[in-house]
Amino acid sequence: MSLKKDMDGFKVRQAQNKMIAEISKTLSGEYKGNNILCVEAPTGTGKTFAYLLGSIPIVKANKKKLIISSANVALQEQLLFKDMPQAQKYCCVDFEYALVKGRSRYVCVRNLINVCEDNTSDNSLFKSMSLFDNPPEKYQLEQLSEMLNDYSTKKWNGEIDDLMHAPDHSIWQKIACNRFTCTTKSCEFYQDCAFFKARRQITKADVIIANHDLVLADLSTGNTMLPDVSESIFIFDEAHHLNSKALLCFSLTTSTEFIKTSVRQTKAVSEQLCKISKQDVPNINIKQIDDYLTDLIRLLKQLGFNNNIYLFSQGVVDESIKQISENILTLIGTVQTKFTLLKESWSNYLKITIIDKSISDSISNAAAECEQHLLSIITLFSSFLQKDEPNKAPYSRWVEKSTLANKKTSYLLNSAQTDVSKNLDQLIWSKISGAILTSATLTSLGSFERLNKQLGLLKDENQYLCLPSPFVFNQVDFIIAKLKASPAQVYEHTQEVASQLLKRLDSNEGSLVLFASNKQMQIVVDLVEKKLDCTLFVQSEYSKKHILEKHIGLRKQGKGSVIFGLDSFAEGVDLKGDNLTHVVIAKLRFSVPTSPIDKTLATYLKSQNRNPFMEISLPDASLKLIQACGRLIRTETDTGKITIFDNRLVSKFYGKQLLNALPNYNIIVE
Question: Is the pLDDT of residue 102 over 50?
Fold first, then answer.
C-alpha cells in the first residue's frame, strides 16, 4: 500500500489502525468463535476505509462474499462512486464489487413487450389488465414504447433509477420484475433480462453493496438474491438503524377493501383461465366472504379509535373480532388451495397447448399476482390470530381506519413484532461467517446493552470496541441555557426558545437549530423569521439536499444562514468548517411511545415491573443527543459551540447520565 504518498489528505489515524486490526482478528477467527464485532467509530475515524481494508483480504483468502449494508442511499452512493474505487487502488488484493438492488427496481422485458405490442387487438394485455387497473393512457403507451426501444438499443439498462422520467407506479408494477410472476430460465428473455444480468454481475463480485431493507427482505424470503448467508461476511454500516428497519420488515398488514378486491380478482382470473383451458370453474363463494367482512366491519366500527387507530391491549384481539377473522381466514385459505391447484393445471396445459403468448403471459402474470395477494392476506390473519408465547414480548396488533379516494372507509388490520432479536439471530447471526456492526453512535449511555437487546446479540459471544474520537472537544462549549420554562410547559418553552434564538443566533454565521417537534418548529418559525437578519431555511419547505446546497452557497459568499430541522437533520448532515459553527438543540428528543409497536412494548414492560423510560426512552435520548451534537465538529480544524434549551439536564436525576455520555465538551450551565 502507498496510502501516505498517494492519497490526497491522508493522515495516520491510530483509531483507524485499531479498527482495521480488530476487524482482521475477529474475521480471521483469532477470538475463538466470536465472529461478530461491534465498533463505535466516531466521525473522523475513517471507518469506511477501515472496514474495507480490514475485511476484503480475509474475504478473498477464505473465498467468501462481503456484503456491505447501509441504511440510506447517500452512503450507498458514497461507497459505490468514491470509497470502493479508492479501496481497489490501495487494497493489497484485487477484488470486484457490485451494487445490488431489489427485483422490483428492474423492468421485466417480457411484460414490457406484451404491453407495447398488439395493444389495440382483442388479445392485448390491457384486456386482462383491466381486471386490475384502467388501461394505460396514450401518452403512457408512448412512454413505454420509448422505454422498450431504449432497452433494445442498449440506451437504457432496465433500471427504474436510470430513467429520466419514470412511469406511474401503477404502470411500473405491471412491467417490473416480480418473484411471483418470474419464470426464470424458462423465459425466452432470460439471457437479456435486466435483473438476471445484474445477478450475474453480483455472482462475479467479491464485494456487494446493499442496504438494510434489501438484506432483511431477502433473508426473510428465502435468501434468493444475495449470496448464501453462510458463505458471506456482513458489514452493517449505520447499524443503529438495523432494529427499526427489522421491525418494519417483519410487520404485516391487509385491509378489508384489499380482501374484497383480491377475492374478486381471483374469481375473474379463474374464469378466464378455465374458459381457455376448458376446465370447470372452481366455486369461490364471494357472498359468504363478503358477509363475514360486513360482520367484521360492523364490529370494527364500534371500536374506540384514537387518531384513526385502535390498539388491542397487549396484542390480544377481541374475542368477537377473532371469531369472525378465523372464519375469513378459513374461507380465504380454501380459495387459495383451489386456486393453487388451478394454477398448476394451467401450467400443465401450457406445456401441451400452443396459444398466443400475449394471452398466456398476461393470464399467468395475473394468476401469480392473485396468488401473491391471497398469500399476504393469509399470512396477516395467521399472525393477527396467533397466541403469543408466555413471558415473551407480545406482538402489537391494531386496526387503522382510512378513507379511500371513492370516500369508502377501509379498515387496515396490522400485526407486528415488538422484539425482532430472535428473527435476526435465526436469519443472520447464527448462520454468517462473520459480521461487523459499526456506526458513529452505536452505544447508549456509554453501553452496548441496548444494541444487544434490540438485535439479539450476546455479550459473551461477540467483540466490542469503542474508539476514541480524533477530535479535541474540550474547546467546544456545550451551553445549557438558563430558561424559566421546562419543555413540559409547551407554550412557555416555545415562546422562550423563539426569544432566545433571536438573542443567540449570529446573523453572520452558519447555524443549525434542531427541533424534536414539528409543531414547535413551525410556531418558532412564525415568531422569528421576519426578525432574523439572515436567510432561514426550514425543513419540508425544500428538500434536504436543496437546503444544504443553498446554505453552503451562502456561506461561501460570507453570508449568514440558519437551518431549522427535525430528526433527519440531526444525522447524516456534514457541514464542515465555517458552514456550521453553532448547533442549537431546542429540547431533548425523548421517544414518547406513540406508534402502536412502541406503546405495546412499553405496556408489556410495565406489566413485568420494568421501566420503559429507563430501558428505552433514556438510552435512545442519549444516542440522539450525541448524534445531534455530532453535526458540529466534522474535521480536526472545526470550531463552534452547542446550545441546548432544556433545563432537565440539570434539574432531573438522569441529566448527569446524559452529560456523562457526551464527548468531553466544556459544559457551561448558565
Answer: yes
Rounded to whole angstroms, the Cα distance separating 283 from 271 reads 10
SS3 32: coil
C-alpha cell at 501: 434564538
DSSP assignment of 299-352 equals: HHHTS--BTTEEEPGGG---HHHHHHHHHHHHHHHHHHHHHHHHHHHHHHHHHH
State which amino acid sits at residue 91: C
Are 642 and 477 contacting, i.e. CB atoms less than 8 angstroms apart? yes
Q: Are 261 and 388 in contact (CB under 8 A)?
A: no
CA 180-186-188 angle, 5° bins: 110
Q: How far apart are CA 167 and CA 178, in angstroms?
A: 17
**Do residues 384 and 397 lie in contact, with contact meaning Cβ atoms separated by under 8 Å?**
yes
Question: Is residue 118's pLDDT more than 80?
Answer: no
530 burial type by CB count under 10 A (0-12 exposed, 13-18 middle, 19+ buried): exposed
What value does the mean pLDDT take over residues 64-72? 93
Given this model, what pLDDT does residue 182 score? 85
Where do runs of H (alpha helix) occur along 117-233? 125-129, 138-152, 169-175, 194-204, 212-220
User: Does an H or E element contain 207, and which?
Assistant: strand 207-211
Please report the pLDDT score of residue 603 as a whole number: 93
Quick one: CA torsion of 256, 257, 259, 265, rounded to 10 degrees? 170
Q: Is-contact 213 236, C-beta < 8 A?
A: no
pLDDT tens for 338-366 read 999 999 999 898 888 888 777 888 888 88
**What does residue 234 show for φ and ψ, rounded to 5 degrees?**
-105, 140
Whole-angstrom distance, CA of residue 450 vs CA of residue 446: 10
Which amino acid makes up residue 135? P
The partner residues of 211 in beta bridges, in order of sequence, read 70
**SS3 per-residue string spanning 368-425:** HHHHHHHHHHHHHHHHHHCCCCCCCCCEEEEEEEEECCCCCEEEEEEEEECCCHHHHH
Mean pLDDT of the chain: 90
Three cell numbers at 203? 455472482
With left for phi above 0 and alpha for psi between -120 and 50, is residue 660 left, alpha or beta? alpha
pLDDT at 500 over 90: yes
pLDDT at residue 91, as a whole number: 86
What are the backbone dihedrals phi and psi of residue 562, each rounded to the nearest 5 degrees, phi first?
A: -125, 135
Q: Regarding predicted confidence, which is higher, 368 or 336? A: 336
Sheet holding 434-439, edge to edge: 97-99, 207-211, 65-70, 232-237, 434-439, 36-40, 463-466
Q: Give the separation between CA 139 and CA 137, rounded to whole angstroms.
A: 6
Element (H, E) at 70: strand 65-70
CA proximity to 206, closest of 102, 101, 70, 98: 98
Which element (helix H / strand E) includes 546? helix 544-556
pTM for this entry:
0.88
In the three-class reduction of DSSP (H, G, I as helix; E, B as strand; rest coil), residue 485 is classed as: coil
Residue appearing with cell numbers 390491457: 126
Q: How far is CA 177 from the centre of its chain?
A: 20
pLDDT number for residue 128? 47
